[in-house]
Design a protein that fits this description.
about 375 residues, globular
Length: about 375
Amino acid sequence: MKENYLDNSATTKVCEKAVSKMVELLSENYGNPSSLHKKGFDAEQELKSARQTLALCLGAERDEIVFTSGGTEANNLALFGAASLGKRFGRRIVSTAFEHPSVLRPLEALRKEGFELCLIKPDRNGRITEDAILSALTPDTVLVSVMAVNNEVGTILPFDQIGAQISKIAPHALFHVDAVQAFCKIPIDVKKAKIDLLSASAHKIHGPKGAGLLYVRKGVRLPARTLGGGQERGFRSGTEALPAIAGFAAAAESFGKPAVLLPIMRQKAALCREKLSGIEGVILQSPEEALPYIVNFSLPGIRSETMLHFLSGKGIFVSSGSACAGREKSHVLASMDLPSEQIDSSIRVSFSNDTETEQILELAEAVRLGSETLMRTAKGRKQNR
């Protein structure tokens, strides 16, 4: 059976350039970057090169990139570190209600430590305005954390406009952006957007799992979370996972530029929205201006898991929301105040740059068939009761 993989927001297939680079670092240039001999020096040069490549993707300086094991660790390091730094100035934290669990759960832990937590809810269309965030700020706010792109419905938050205004209201606040779903897909300039901390992950852009980064603006001195040999500016000690890091950089280099890719991806998303909208009962949850890599929809009356199994049986792979949320009901859609039946039937389709028109058409036809088949089955069960 031919596979039709449309779950790229969960993870992507590793690209050939990343695989090749990782093999090179595993089998040839395998030295420890901290070693003082030639093998170590060669590995250190690879580490510096990867750091420079990824810094350029953000308009950052090379030494502002700290490597992590992925987006979850980067988010945790940023949030706990920023809260620790800021607590002498205040204890208010502002974020959104539809952040990724790797942000919401650390924030809940900080709330239990005595921080005041303000979570801004999106509207029923999944949008959060700049004013909604800024109006929640007070002079004692010490941390503002927003995702650049929502991982379930694709909402693009106005992080660049927000960053420019924070210091006028909350002079001691650090600004953190979870860019895991946005990195390389939309333009991000950390200097222009006045971002202090930013998280990204390799496996969302055709890099390997197990590699991520935290941008830490020069001058922000986060407390060390992992002590040891002093790697990563002393903030996160431990021998760097160089093959994965080099694969991350190779993937970023080969991903392409947002200015070129976004118009193409918008056409793909528009086609998907058009075809799904033509199916009776389908409700689109993603805003029209959402990141075109994500299209979220519901078919009330058919539970997500049921439709997922139906599509999987035809070789089509999508998801019901965040892979990190497991079987839990979508807190993202719940924060949008959508009806339970709509939440329980939600499906997330997520594309890569390699997604072809044929795959989208195949998905739409399978959803149509699934709707007819599963609705008929459900009606039959009700009649037999």
